[in-house]
Backbone:
């Protein structure tokens, strides 16, 4: 048999696992609310198409950010990794600007 202290020492070196259950439920509720708003926006009357399209796009990007930030653990990454993850977001914002500008013309 092995040394009984080895197992005990390994147990002491492990960090205590913190449950993220509450945070996950909060994010679930936020995503559900944003989805409900997304379902309501197309039904709005007296609102321009550009406003509806822009609102739906912003909500979709917001939901994607929440999922990436929390469930893909971007909140625990270094500043450099956060910057790398943000680059596509800037490209998306530019694309939205170009699309909205072309629709308005």
Residues:
């Amino acid at each position: 048999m092995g040394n009984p202290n080895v197992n005990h020492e390994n147990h002491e070196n492990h960090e205590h696992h913190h449950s993220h259950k509450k945070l996950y439920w909060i994010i679930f509720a936020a995503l559900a609310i944003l989805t409900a708003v997304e379902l309501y926006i197309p039904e709005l009357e007296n609102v321009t198409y550009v406003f509806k399209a822009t609102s739906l796009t912003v909500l979709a990007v917001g939901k994607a950010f929440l999922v990436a930030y929390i469930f893909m653990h971007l909140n625990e990454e270094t500043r450099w990794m956060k910057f790398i993850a943000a680059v596509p977001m800037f490209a998306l914002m530019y694309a939205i600007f170009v699309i909205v500008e072309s629709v308005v013309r």
Q: What stands out?
A: The chain has one domain: 20-104. Residues 20-104 form one domain.
